[in-house]
Amino acid sequence: MQKYLTIYHDLAKKIKANYWPKSTMLPSENELTAMYETSRETIRKALNLLAQEGFIQKVRGKGSVIIDVNKFDFPVSGIVSFKELAVNLKQETRTIVSELEQVEADKQLQSKLHVEKGEQVWKVVRVREISGEKIILDKDYFNSVYVPELTQEICADSIYHYLENDLQLDISFARKEIVVEEPTDEDRELLNLEGYSNVVVIKSRVYLDDTSLFQYTESRHRPDKFRFVDFARR
């Protein structure tokens, strides 16, 4: 077995055994070079494989931080509200409503929500906090034809619960796109992103049972906390 693979397996075994606690820094490349009596290039290969397999997150200018190997599963194929997701996380969670307002649809929103110029849409920006860390930024836009009213209380609890139970809307399916982007100024202001150079963004268009498009959303995630999962069948 090539030496970098032997080092990778040893480091992965130590991380799984909590030899170094999650969210702490792995020893530096120089320290690992001395520990394993090898070249820096070999250590870098082992570290790259650790990063690819989700054991560490490389932080620019600082080194490698150890990721909790028990990442939160985020279902991609379903339509799940954060409140429903939080039940399975078994972690302390909180939703912070940063913005709630009606805005006129600009060209981008006209395209994303299939509305006419000047139509009113709800803009909702919420920060999701898990175990005291702000790690998800949800930016939702709702067509006011289908969602005529929203309140701070509804947005802090569950919009989907309100839509389905109070407004009796039949939420049916969504088209989703997953991309990795550089954090925006808004991401850095509202999320705990120090040292992280990208965010994972799930962009969704959500439809009612009659195929009416009523919601466009961007769910922006810090990359170290989530494993995006799906179920496929041939």
Automatic annotation (TrEMBL):
InterPro entries: Bact_HTH_transcr_reg, Chorismate_lyase_/UTRA_dom_sf, TreR, Tscrpt_reg_HTH_GntR, UTRA, WH-like_DNA-bd_sf, WH_DNA-bd_sf. Keywords: DNA-binding, Transcription, Transcription regulation. SMART domains: HTH_GNTR, UTRA. Residues 1-69 form the HTH gntR-type domain. The keyword Transport does not apply. Pfam families: GntR, UTRA. This is Trehalose operon repressor. It comes from Virgibacillus siamensis.
